[in-house]
Amino acid sequence: MSQLPTIAHFIDGKPTLGGTRSQDVFNPATGKAEKRLLLADKLTVEQAIASAQAAFPAWRNTPPLKRARVMSNLKVLLEQHADELCALITAEHGKVLPDALGELQRGIENVEYASYAPELLKGEHSKNVGPAMDSWSEFQALGVTAGITPFNFPIMVPLWMWPMAVACGNTFVLKPSERDPSSTLRVVELALQAGLPPGVLNLVNGDKEAVDTLLSDPRVKAVSFVGSTPIAEYIYAEGCKHGKRVQALGGAKNHAVVMPDADVPNAVSALMGAAYGSCGERCMAIPLVVAVGDAAADAVVAGLKTEIAKMTVGAGTSAGVDMGPLVTRQHFEKVLGYVNQGVAEGATLVVDGRNVEVAGFEDGYFLGPCLFDHVKPGMKIYQDEIFGPVLGVMRVKSLQEAMDLIDAHEYGNGTCIFTRDGEAARYFSDNILVGMVGVNVPLPVPVAYHSFGGWKRSLFGDLHAYGPDSVRFYTKRKTITQRWPSAGVREGAMFSFPSTK
Ligand code: NAD
Questions:
Q1: Element (H or E) spanning 34, and its range?
Q2: How would residue 490 be classed by pLDDT, with cut points 50, 70 and 90?
Q3: What angle in degrees, to the nearest 10, is found between the helix axes of 82-93 and 64-80?
Q4: Whose CA is nearest to atom 42 of ligand 1?
Q5: Where in the chain are all domains bearing CATH 3.40.605.10?
Q6: CA of 250, closest atom in ligand 1
Q7: In this structure, which residue's CA is closest to atom 10 in ligand 1?
């Protein structure tokens, strides 16, 4: 039996053991197993759901301002614990510390937005809709809600979900990624410290068994999912089959169009961060550049090559490092396989990051930045989400050709255009079949008070994540029509359908 520290679940306000299966959690910079994660069985997940169900009536009736105050407290705690939380992210995900801080900050902004829930829940009121009759619509909590989250933002993506869900009066069961669960768990502990009553927010660690229990248990009313497209599609179908409200955000392959009139040095700087930041493990990363015209393509490739030569790859905890390791050995091998495949498919490997070495971290999952030119639509490295530091450049002749390419791709999460031509930018953002668009902005991730979501096979469901859509997702509308006729006035029966005519 492993002697590693055990990561448990968090149910009813306390650490809870449960499940007979477990798996190691690795530090991707060293390749060493550091912790042992318990994988929840059905019974453990049911225990978490029962705790959330029991906490719901009191929490639903807690004044919205009191619920919101917990979010304000949590914001302060997250800021106070920033160093500790970022260290936990980097130790299991691998991203560099400043990037972990960026993730935490974007997560905090979602907590901040959830603290405005009383304002967002006020509903709508109409007086005199009929004789002595008033009507209003209110947003009621659903009950027990659940979230299933990916490895690449272990703090931010859970914070897209549960703060607004509980601020709206729901209770929650969170199932984070099994690859880097420690920072997610620490935030849940801090939420209790901020004043969340036991049972309002529970966390179960686990895999498919835990997820399937959440999807089939009738006490769970809504499920939010963020992860890869095949699993998102499964979650959506399975959750809907069991009568739940589901939003399932999937994978991506985001194209950046570089127009002939673009400011190339600035576009190159923007593309560097968007392609290689967080080792390309972002659903809004840019793994593809579509250059309009050979002159733009040649300038972009030359610029990227120069900038890549200046990059430092190393442990996420080391100072001055631009890019850390990939998350697991398995993922490292998958990404490496794609680089080999790109070469075999005939793309030109302009920068080869396959043999990068990091002194002192020889067993880490490091892959250097890779750059392909002459990527073609038929290639697997074009079609598939690689989710690694691999950027491909494609060459087209016109903006329309670039847009046709983007529209034909199965994913539609994010895209951007670099240009100085307002008309082209407006045409692109109006017509492109993608959910989030940047104009000279490489990572157009909406701020916390707008909602986040892709089109096509990047999102299954109708409502996007966080922002105003999250209030709709985590509540159901009820419309009440009320009349107080004057005492003593007798009214006859009315057989026609009531109207204001
Ligand atoms: P993943 O799909 O492997 O896992 C996501 C979650 O699903 C995890 O909690 C995991 O335990 C669970 N899961 C995995 N296999 C399952 C199965 N067979 N049945 C039930 N549950 C299962 O995703 P990942 O590798 O952790 O994250 C990377 C992916 O997430 C990428 O595809 C990325 O594009 C996507 N992502 C999308 C967004 C977005 O907003 N669209 C944001 C972040 C990440």
A1: strand 32-39
A2: confident
A3: 70
A4: 283
A5: 6-250+458-480
A6: 41
A7: 177
- For 457, which DSSP code? T
Binned at pLDDT 50, 70 and 90, residue 501 comes out as confident
pLDDT in tens, 169-219: 999 999 999 999 999 999 999 999 999 999 999 999 999 999 999 999 999
| Fold designation for 6-250+458-480 | Aldehyde Dehydrogenase; Chain A, domain 1 (3.40.605)
CATH of 255-439, one of 3.40.50.620, 3.40.50.720, 3.40.190.10, 3.40.309.10: 3.40.309.10
Contacts of 493 (CB under 8 A, 6+ apart): none
**Tokens 């968007």 sit at which residue?**
274
User: For the segment 234-282, what is each residue's pLDDT rounded down to a tens digit?
Assistant: 999 999 999 999 999 999 999 999 999 999 999 999 999 999 999 999 9
Per the document, the length of the chain is: 501
Q: What is the pLDDT of residues 353-410, one digit of tens each?
A: 999 999 999 999 999 999 999 999 999 999 999 999 999 999 999 999 999 999 999 9
**Looking at ligand 1, which atom is closest to the CA of residue 177?**
9
Question: CB–CB of 214/148 below 8 Å?
Answer: yes
- What gap in Å lies between CA 377 and CA 394, rounded to an integer? 9
At 181, the amino acid letter reads P
Q: Which residues are tagged catalytic?
A: 283
Report the distance separating Cα 201 and Cα 427, nearest Å.
44
d(CA 179, CA 207): 10
| Pocket flag, ligand 1, residue 385 (CB < 6 Å) | yes
Torsion of CA 307, 309, 315, 317, to 10 degrees: -40
Q: Whose CA is closest to 13, among 190, 267, 168, 136?
A: 190
